[in-house]
Design brief:
Gyrase A, domain 2; single chain; globular; Isoleucyl-tRNA Synthetase, Domain 1; alpha/beta; three-stranded antiparallel sheet
C-alpha cells in the first residue's frame, strides 16, 4: 500500500472549497493552507494578502469572505478572520479516529513517502584509512551518511550505499614499516585485540620512531628542516618508507603480502565497528583497486582539450573554467596519478555502474574546494553529470577537554567512545534496574549508549561544528535519543498494564479534545512531512526534532492527571489507549530511521 501523509490529505480536503472560492473570483490559489506560525492562531491558517489585487479588497475582508466556505467543512470546528489571515480550528473529535487508524496501519505514519520515488541515488560515506581505527570524526560521517541514505530510502529513492576505503599510500606504509622493524610477529588473535587497533598501535610506533630520529639528528640545531621536509628528504626512516611504497606499486611479493595481512586485520576491525554502529554498505571500493581508474580518462581529456600539459609536463585543468584561479594537476609529469585522478575515474565508473540521478559524497568541510573542483572537472568531461553530483559537507565534532582519553593521544577512537558510553549507561542502569541479569543490562546499556551517540551527532545540522558531550548525550531528559526511547518505553508500560482491557470497547473520540491530546495528534500529523523534508534537504536534524517533538508532546500527555489512561471510563480509556498505541508506533518509526533501538522497558 502506498504510504500516505494524513496531514496533507486533511489540508487538501479543507482547502478544496477555499480554492474553489478563489478561482471563482478569477484567481489561482497561490498560498497553501498550513499550520500557523503563531501558537494562538488555531490549527491551520490561510494568508489572504496575495489575493487583494484580484478580489479588490483588503486582506481582512477577503478572510471574512472565505470564512463561510471554511466553516462548512466537517473537519473544521471554528474559523476566525484576523489580521488578513483566515485561521481555522480543527474538529479533533472528527480528526482523531482517522488519525489513530492511519497511525496504526499506514507506512506514512512511520516516515515513509513517495517524495523521491524513482530517483536513483548513490551515497558515499565513511572512507577510512587502513592504518588506524576509526575515530570520533568517522562516527559523525558514518552515522550522518547512513541516516541520510535511510531517509532517502524512506522517501522512495533507489539508494546504493558505497564506501571508498583508503588502503594504499605512504600513510599505510608507515604502519607497515613499524610492524616490519618493530613488531615481533604479533597478531590480533594472539593479543586479543581488534585488528584495526593493532595496526593503529604500529602507526603510533612509527610516529614515535620518526620523532626520535628527528630529535637525535636535529635537536638544538638552528638550521633544522621541517619534519615533512626531513621525511621526504634525507631521513633514513622516510627513505625506507618511500622505498616500501615504490615496492608496493611494483607489486613486490613480500611487501604486498605484509600489506594484505595488515589491511585484512584493519578491515576486519572496521567491519566490527560498522556492525556495532549499525552501519552498512552495498558496495565497498578500495583505493588499491581504483587509484589507476582515472588515467585513461585524463588521456582522453587531454585529447579533447579538457586538460592541457603544463610546462613541467603534468596534465592540468585550468581552474578559470570554474571561475577560480590557477591550475589543478590531474596527472603528474611522470604519468603517476594523484588523488583527483582516482576520484575522476571512480565517479565515472559509478555512473556507468549505477546510472544514478545523484551521487552524494559525505565528507567534512575541509574538502569543500576539492569537491567544487572535482565536480567542475567531471561535468567538463561528461556534461551528463551536470547537477548530479553533490557534497554533503559537515562541520567538525570535538569533545570537551579532559572528558575522554584516546589510544593515540590525539583523537578518540570510535570503539573507545562506544565503550565509554555503554559503561556509563550500564552504571546508571545498574541503579535503575537492580533486578536485571547481566546480559539484559548490557543489552539495554548498549542501546542507550548508541542512542546517545547517534541522536547527538544527528541533531545538529550537517554544516554545524559542535562539541559532543558524552555525559549529556545519555541523559533521559532534554533533547536526547534516550528521552525518545523513554517515551516509547513508557507507552509500552501503559499498554502492558492495560492488558487489552479496552478490547471491544467503542472509543469515545471526544475524550481526546484536551490540549495535551491535541498536541500529541498535531505532532503526529506533522511527522511525515518533516521526515520527507529531512530526506529532500539531506538534513537528519529535522528527523531528530520531529521525533523529539512527538516524544515531548506524548510525555506531557501521559504525565497530565486529566489524561490518565488506566483509571479512565471505558470509552475514554479506549480512545486514550488507541492514541498511546498510535504514538508508540510512530515513535518507534522515528527511532528506527535513526538506527536507534526502541526499548520496551527502561
Amino acid at each position: 500500500m502506498t504510504p500516505t501523509d494524513l496531514q496533507a490529505q486533511l489540508i487538501a480536503e479543507i482547502a478544496a472549497p477555499l480554492d474553489a472560492a478563489v478561482r471563482a473570483a478569477g484567481a489561482e490559489p497561490e498560498v497553501p493552507l498550513a499550520p500557523p506560525t503563531r501558537e494562538d492562531a488555531g490549527d491551520l491558517a490561510l494568508p489572504c494578502h496575495r489575493y487583494a489585487r484580484v478580489f479588490r479588497k483588503a486582506p481582512q475582508a477577503i478572510a471574512q469572505d472565505l470564512a463561510a466556505a471554511a466553516d462548512a467543512v466537517p473537519l473544521v470546528a471554528g474559523v476566525e478572520a484576523a489580521g488578513g489571515f483566515l485561521n481555522l480550528r480543527l474538529d479533533w473529535t472528527a480528526v482523531a479516529e482517522r488519525l489513530v487508524n492511519w497511525a496504526l496501519t499506514d507506512a506514512g505514519a512511520l516516515g515513509h513517502s513517495t517524495a523521491l520515488a524513482g530517483r536513483k541515488v548513490v551515497v558515499e560515506y565513511s572512507s577510512p584509512n587502513t592504518n588506524k581505527p576509526q575515530h570520533l570524526g568517522h562516527c559523525r560521517n558514518n552515522i550522518l551518511g547512513h541516516t541520510v541514505a535511510t531517509l532517502l530510502e524512506a522517501a522512495g529513492a533507489d539508494v546504493t550505499r558505497v564506501n571508498l576505503v583508503n588502503d594504499r599510500g605512504i600513510h599505510i606504509c608507515k604502519s607497515m614499516w613499524a610492524y616490519e622493524h618493530l613488531g615481533q610477529g604479533e597478531t590480533p588473535e594472539a593479543l586479543g585485540v581488534k585488528g584495526d587497533h593493532l595496526v593503529g598501535d604500529y602507526y603510533v610506533k612509527f610516529n614515535n620512531a620518526f620523532e626520535a630520529e628527528y630529535a637525535e639528528v636535529w635537536a638544538g640545531k638552528d638550521d633544522a628542516p621541517g619534519k615533512d621536509a626531513w621525511f621526504n628528504g634525507d631521513s633514513p626512516i622516510g627513505q625506507q618508507v618511500r622505498a616500501m611504497l615504490r615496492a608496493w606499486e611494483a607489486e613486490d611479493p613480500a611487501v604486498r603480502a605484509l600489506w594484505a595481512t595488515m589491511n585484512g586485520w584493519c578491515e576486519a576491525g572496521f567491519a566490527q565497528t560498522y556492525d556495532r554502529m549499525g552501519v552498512r554498505f552495498d558496495h565497498i571500493d578500495k583505493e588499491s583497486q581504483t587509484y589507476l581508474l582515472g588515467k585513461d580518462l585524463v588521456e582522453r581529456g587531454l585529447a579533447d582539450g579538457v586538460f592541457h600539459r603544463a610546462d613541467n609536463g603534468a596534465a592540468v585543468f585550468a581552474l578559470e573554467k570554474l571561475g577560480l584561479e590557477g591550475e589543478k594537476a590531474v596527472l603528474r609529469a611522470d604519468g603517476t596519478s594523484v588523488y583527483t585522478t582516482q576520484d575522476l575515474g571512480t565517479a565515472m565508473q559509478r555512473y556507468q555502474r549505477y546510472g544514478f540521478d545523484e551521487m552524494i559524497y559525505v565528507v567534512g568541510n575541509e574538502q569543500d574546494r576539492h569537491f567544487q573542483v572535482l565536480f567542475g572537472i567531471l561535468t567538463e568531461l561528461d556534461p551528463a553529470l551536470q547537477g548530479k553530483l553533490s557534497h554533503l559537507s559537515y562541520g567538525m565534532v570535538e569533545l570537551p577537554s579532559g572528558k575522554m582519553k584516546s589510544r593515540e593521544g590525539t583523537v578518540v577512537d570510535a570503539d573507545d567512545l562506544m565503550d565509554e558510553l555503554q559503561a556509563a549507561a550500564r552504571e546508571v542502569g545498574a541503579q535503575n534496574w537492580p533486578d536485571l541479569d547481566d546480559a539484559e543490562l548490557a543489552r539495554r546499556a548498549e542501546a542507550v549508549g548508541l542512542s546517545g551517540l547517534k541522536f547527538f551527532l544527528l541533531k545538529f545540522a550537517p554544516k554545524t561544528t559542535f562539541t559532543f558531550d558524552p555525559e549529556a548525550s545519555i541523559k533521559p531528559e532534554g533533547e536526547t535519543g534516550v528521552y525518545c526511547q523513554y517515551a516509547y518505553a513508557r507507552a509500552t508500560s501503559i499498554l502492558e498494564k492495560l492488558a487489552d482491557a479496552d478490547a471491544g470497547v467503542t472509543p469515545d473520540w471526544s475524550a481526546l479534545d484536551q490540549e495535551q491530546a491535541k498536541a500529541v495528534m498535531k505532532a503526529m500529523l506533522g511527522f511525515p512531512g518533516t521526515v520527507a523534508q529531512a530526506a529532500i534537504d539531506k538534513k537528519p536534524s529535522l528527523l531528530t526534532k520531529g521525533t523529539f517533538d512527538l516524544a515531548r508532546a506524548f510525555a506531557a500527555f501521559y504525565n497530565h492527571p486529566d489524561c490518565n489512561v488506566l483509571k479512565a471510563e471505558p470509552g475514554v480509556q479506549a480512545a486514550r489507549a488507541q492514541l498511546v498505541r498510535a504514538a508508540r508506533r510512530m515513535l518507534g518509526g522515528g527511532l528506527a530511521l535513526m538506527g536507534i533501538t526502541a526499548l520496551e522497558s527502561m
